[in-house]
Amino acid sequence: MIKEIYFSGFRNLKDKRVKLSRGFNLIYGQNAQGKTSFMEAIYFASTGRSFRTKKNNEMIKYTENDAKVFVKLENTTNYAINLFKKEKKYYKNGDRIKYVDYIGDILAISFIPEDVELVMGNPSIRRGFFNYEISQINKEYLHLIVDYEKILKSRNRFLKEKKHKNELYEIYNEKYIDLCSKILKIRKEYVDELNRYLDNNYKTLFNEEHSLKLTYENFLNMEDVYDIDKNREKISELLKNKEIYDIQLGYSNYGIHKDEYIFNLNGKNSRHYSSQGEKKSIVFILKISEVELIEKKVNKKPVFLMDDIASFFDNFRKNQIIHYFLEKEIQCFLTSTEDLKIVGKKFDVDGGMVNEEY
């Protein structure tokens, strides 16, 4: 759990060191005062990424050249990120480390209004989301994805330049097949494990008569992708049959970058058939199911951050959700425009200044 956070030059926030509760942390105040920025700083320090933007300069205060976030855990381990317009520098206990070594040490799950795009948005949004979530608990997967992106770019370059008969292309192609084979298996296993929680949680918190399932549709159109050697054979065969097509297009049209994840509520694709309220509920259930999966896989409790809880749920469901987290004993950060009657630390954010209320 995060014991304290320090930030400077981060968005509109005034530089400050803040001690946090190991239970509930309520961040409240009027709109556009910095509530979400405070929570974003916590998430960014935990994960090395923002839930609002991919652009570094948007997180740096316009009067500054860089921003810093620092967190200390209960076990006294500390992590820091120095953010510049064109790079990020990561530190653990004062020593600089790579991003791949930073990710996964502090586990965090966020839930924000824009997350409804996980259901409504295009497939790349879902692939990016699940790539990160799997990487939090599986470093092997993280390295596979990083390698895959590099190999995909090289393979595409050879295809575009019509150098598919080059010996180096064959080497890249074999590596491409191997990476796809392993990633398919890990993705499928993750979805299968996540499904053990999704339906039960949806029934418990929202509607006991509805069923929720996440389906993993891979580019091979195969249900069973657990055998890596078999995957290699199928992928190799597919790429040979489609080689002329790839050459004509000038890029790789078959691979794990074409996979899709589909949320099915009562057997129907939620992207097309679920209401706006149901989509919000599906995403929330996805996030708390990830909490439970993380606990089981790595025996650690993740930090949970929820922005603007009042806009998502009515008072009844809001109270159910708060009770759920109380039972789980998870460190939570909630933002709201009103003072929720919960036991924990309360922070009033006004004009970028974070003030603890006593």
Task: List the keywords.
single chain, alpha/beta, Rossmann fold, globular, Glutathione S-transferase Yfyf (Class Pi), Chain A, domain 2, 22% strand, 47% helix, six-stranded antiparallel beta sheet, 13 helices, 2 domains
Please tell me about this protein's structure.
It is a single chain. With 358 residues, this protein is an alpha/beta fold. It folds into two domains: 1-107 and 301-357, 3-Layer(aba) Sandwich (Rossmann fold); 114-299, Up-down Bundle (Glutathione S-transferase Yfyf (Class Pi), Chain A, domain 2), CATH 1.20.1050. The chain is built from 13 helices and 15 strands. It has helices at residues 35-47, 56-59, 99-102, 117-120, 123-137, 139-160, 167-205, 228-241, 243-249, 270-273, 276-298, 309-312, 315-328; strands spanning 2-8, 16-19, 24-28, 66-73, 78-84, 88-92, 95-97, 108-111, 212-217, 260-265, 268-269, 303-306, 332-336, 344-350, 353-357. The chain has a six-stranded antiparallel beta sheet. A six-stranded mixed beta sheet has the order 8-12-13-3-14-15, with helices on both faces. A hairpin with a 2-residue loop joins strand 6 (88-92) and strand 7 (95-97). It starts with a strand and ends with a strand. 34% of the residues are buried. The model has no long low-confidence stretch (mean pLDDT 93). Residues 1-338 form the RecF/RecN/SMC N-terminal domain. It is found in: Cytoplasm. ATP binds at residues 29-36.
